[in-house]
Design a protein that fits this description.
Blueprint (H helix, E strand, L loop, with lengths): L15 E3 L5 E3 L14 H5 L7 E4 L2 E4 L6 E6 L7 E12 L4 E20 L10 H6 L10 E27 L2 E14 L21 E2 L6 E10 L14 E9 L16
């Protein structure tokens, strides 16, 4: 509060707010202070939110049974994500200028970070009031709605057969052809911003094809040195053609329903 931090409101923290039709409003740049009163222990025992009514300049809110609050936290025994990878390969010289490499490549990730709802209502009748009564914490903390907890619970796996055929320069031609047959699986339906599991009681139910699961990929690149011909100023000497192309199978997609009440 302002009594404990008299200079806090003078710290410049300017920010812009984008309004309707793209209009930008520049704020005054000072931290806005307020006071939050913690309810008494007696109120806690009678199932009243410890936060009571939240009031601050420009901020209003309350945590009540009729309007539960959404809160978030971090699992106290959070562990560091881990990633393991391994490979095994063989190389064979087919001719004096052609080499074949075949490898198995794999990796495994565990303790990857994401949110999950610890207070997700069990399936049943739709509607906010009915769903709130089915939340695991409803009997003890009826003023709490979604409880998003940051945890290290997701896993990922990747396995692939990789083959590379390399042709050194022979009669003016050299190329590299590669083929990968792989499978990527994880528990995150998104890429950069994964969404929380649909069922907080069963995060493993999200395990499936990853967003970057390219099952087949073929690459081909090379160079052909064109025959040279003696000409003035070497105009027809030293020319070559290069090429590079790749083909890959389609990426998977994840169906998301934003219109229906899944919990209901």
């Amino acid at each position: 509060n302002s009594a404990a931090n008299p200079g806090l409101q003078n710290v410049p923290t300017g920010w812009n707010m984008v309004g309707p039709a793209g209009t930008v409003t520049t704020q005054n740049g000072n931290i806005r202070l307020g006071t939050v009163t913690i309810a008494t222990p007696a109120a806690i025992q009678s199932n009243v939110s410890v936060f009571g009514a939240l009031t601050a300049p420009g901020v209003t809110g309350s945590c009540t049974t009729a309007a539960p609050c959404k809160i978030a936290g971090v699992y106290p025994r959070l562990v560091t994500p881990q990633f393991f990878q391994w490979n095994f390969g063989i190389q064979r010289l087919l001719t004096n200028s052609t080499t074949l490499d075949v490898s198995y490549v794999g990796n495994h990730g565990q303790h990857q970070l994401n949110f999950t709802d610890w207070n997700q209502p069990a399936p049943g009748i739709a509607g906010a009031a009915a769903e709130n009564l089915r939340r695991p914490f409803a009997s003890k903390y009826p003023w709490l709605g979604t409880v998003q907890v940051f945890q290290a619970f997701q896993v990922s796996n990747y396995h692939a057969l990789q083959a590379t055929l390399t042709q050194k320069v022979y009669h003016g031609v050299n190329f590299t052809a590669g083929y990968t047959y792989g499978h990527a699986l994880d528990q995150a339906p998104g890429d950069v911003n994964p969404t929380a599991p649909q069922n907080g009681l069963n995060p493993a139910g999200e395990y499936g094809n990853g967003i970057q699961d390219v099952r087949h990929r073929l690459t081909l690149q090379g160079r052909y040195a064109l025959p040279s011909k003696k000409t003035p100023l070497q105009a027809l000497e030293g020319w070559s053609m290069t090429f590079a192309t790749q083909f890959w199978s389609a990426l998977p997609f994840n169906a998301v329903d934003t219109t229906n009440d899944v919990s209901g």
